[in-house]
Design goal:
Number of domains: 1
Largest sheet: 2 strands, parallel
Oligomer: single chain
Length: 140
């Protein structure tokens, strides 16, 4: 297997940043479709490289970017609290996160955001898990 060149991760992250900009004004579902299209092709291109650990890191980073987008779509405190509670976060934790004076990126890394929008939640929305995709390509 070939070694993973670090510049490819930077190029992928730049492209993903462009797709997941918070001010694009598109639905989360459409953003996920665009991301899947790019990421599946990208993993297919580099399937021969030893990059499983890098994909784990990239997958987590992409989910955090998308959590940031989803929280920003709530726009205000009360809709964010309502969304977090609907996703199973406790009332206290939802209010603590929503009232935090931190920015969107910091809020997207909170335990409440991680609990509300876990891996299974993203898979239900259609986000492809890169590690599973990579492992299936290695098996074939």
């Amino acid at each position: 297997m070939a070694k993973w060149p670090s510049c490819f991760g930077a190029l992928a992250k730049d492209r993903i940043r462009g797709i997941t900009r918070r001010n694009r004004g598109i639905s989360l579902e459409r953003m996920i479709q665009e991301l899947n299209s790019f990421r599946i092709g990208w993993v297919n291109d580099f399937r021969r490289a030893a990059m499983k650990n890098h994909l784990v890191e990239l997958d987590g980073w992409v989910r955090r970017k998308l959590r940031c987008v989803r929280l920003k779509q709530c726009k205000r405190v009360k809709p964010m609290v309502d969304f977090l509670i609907r996703q199973g976060v406790s009332l206290r934790q939802a209010w603590r996160t929503a009232l935090s004076g931190k920015g969107w990126w910091r809020k997207s890394g909170t335990p409440a955001a991680n609990q509300a929008m876990g891996i299974s939640w993203w898979e239900k929305l259609g986000l492809v898990n890169l590690v599973r995709r990579y492992e299936s390509l290695q098996a074939s």
